[in-house]
Amino acid sequence: MTPDLIQPPAPVAFIGLGVMGAAMAANLQRAGFRLSVANRSRAKAVALEEAGARWCDSPAEAARGAACIALCLPDTPDVEAVLFGPGGVAETVERGAVVIDFSTISAAPAAGFAARLAAERGAQLLDSPVSGGPGGAREGTLTCMVGGEAVAFAAARPVLEAVGQKLTHLGPAGAGQVCKSANQLLVAATLQAVSEALALGRKAGLEPEAMRQALLGGSARSFVLENHAKRIIDGTLAPGFRAELMRKDMRLALAATRDHGVFAPATAMAAQMLEALVNGGRGGLDSAALGVLVAELSGAPATG
User: Fold this and answer.
1) What is the pLDDT of residue 240?
2) CATH topology of domain 11-173
3) What is the pTM assigned to this prediction?
4) Among 44, 180, 230, 248, which one carries the catalytic annotation?
């Protein structure tokens, strides 16, 4: 069955109202979708309710009658529970509905969830992890890396366009998650390199911000150098994207490289550094706190 185009004012449910999810849900509401929301804590839904969203006590209640159900959850077990656990989406989702999972989870389970939802309920699941951070979520400029059936991607495009600016259909279920692992290993490996570069500059007596500006003028320019290096230099490490979440993502990336037989020493090193950062008690800080750890290991001042 080919899903109908899901466009405003179609009913859309959003489950998972963390920093990213709440902002994405607000953009769906502003786009004109009739929004229902569910979350472990109702307090995070207050602003959405005040703007007209309907609160639901369970994912099943939110999914009932929705043309599209969006998820934004921390990890693979959370997605499985929301989809198939007691009071889950699978209890009420309608045939032909599209579920969009914006979470970053393991690719193989994502593909399994899509197959199960199609077999049991006749609904389509797209895995669509995002990149762009809280700022991109607020501004509706996220990058959506999408795996799943092409017809479901086409049907859900208006929903995706409400939260993202660059939408790419990458292949079958799970493909979006593989691409997100590639994204995260690039970010983490670059963050490690930037952290080492800043430590080198400090130990050699260079002024860190002047060095950053010089590097931004050449081939080393990157989002990480522009944004994360500034955080490291200024010591502004409130998240952002928590280090413990980046550790989770790097575990997924490392598993993906192993599953596909990729020689990935940079991924392995960055993953181990994130393990050290979180195990050292800094999991609640922004992932840019990796720069502080590298500075400490180098015997260099991290800030100032």
Assistant:
1) 87
2) Rossmann fold (3.40.50)
3) 0.93
4) 180
